[in-house]
Amino acid sequence: MEHKGIDILAFGAHADDVEIGMAGSLAKWSAMGKKIVICDLTEAELSSNGTVETRKKEAKKAAELLGVAERVNLYLSDRGLLLKDEHIRKIANIIRIYKPTLIFAPYHNDRHPDHGNCFRLVEEAFFSAGIRKYEVEGNYPPHKPLNLYQYMINGFASPHFVVDITNFIDKKVKALNAYQSQFFIHEGGVQTPLTEGYIENVTARDRLFGKEVGVTFAEGFLSSKPLLLNNNVFGEDL
């Protein structure tokens, strides 16, 4: 599985994490011709609603709606995303395989421990993937992505930058609606924070971020290092 290099590699602990935080941006960048891969670390086998098989189908549908080139899973244990060397090496291997320009992972401060742990694992792998003598299973050459950004799931923080998704909010909502087992109660299901108007809460957050910069909807991100601006200081798109 050799790749010349993709534009964006987005990690999530569970399928739907990436969509909650940045589905609008992914749809926008995909429409611009950017090549995007999503990597889910687990199968979300401990989710209160739905099954692993159902979640796989939902994740596939959501990725197709967003124009994502590929979606992969590392099959790590749900609620087992601990800072282990074997986990870091698996993630570093994925980074070396796909050679992304940019990497995205969940905001480190989230009510669900798996989301913060996902970021910490990706942060470690982000650094290790660029070390020449760091060995991974696939024996791929080292790769240093340009930057690591954080998207928000449950957490709310002042973003370092936002992306205007006004023209793609409908695609984001459609991608979230693909996860029928998670955001809606069906027969035999149970009530969770996700079934209590969660999609509406997410779009309300995007509307708030948009208002801050004079657009209707925007997604907020945090950067692990300062962003370099040239002409962008005058208001051009990043």
UniProtKB/TrEMBL annotation:
GO biological process: bacillithiol biosynthetic process
Pfam families reported in the protein's UniProt record: PIG-L
Cofactor(s) recorded in Swiss-Prot or TrEMBL: Zn(2+)
Annotated GO MF terms: deacetylase activity; hydrolase activity, acting on carbon-nitrogen (but not peptide) bonds, in linear amides
Signal peptide: none
NCBIfam families linked to this entry: thiol_BshB1
Name of the protein: Bacillithiol biosynthesis deacetylase BshB1
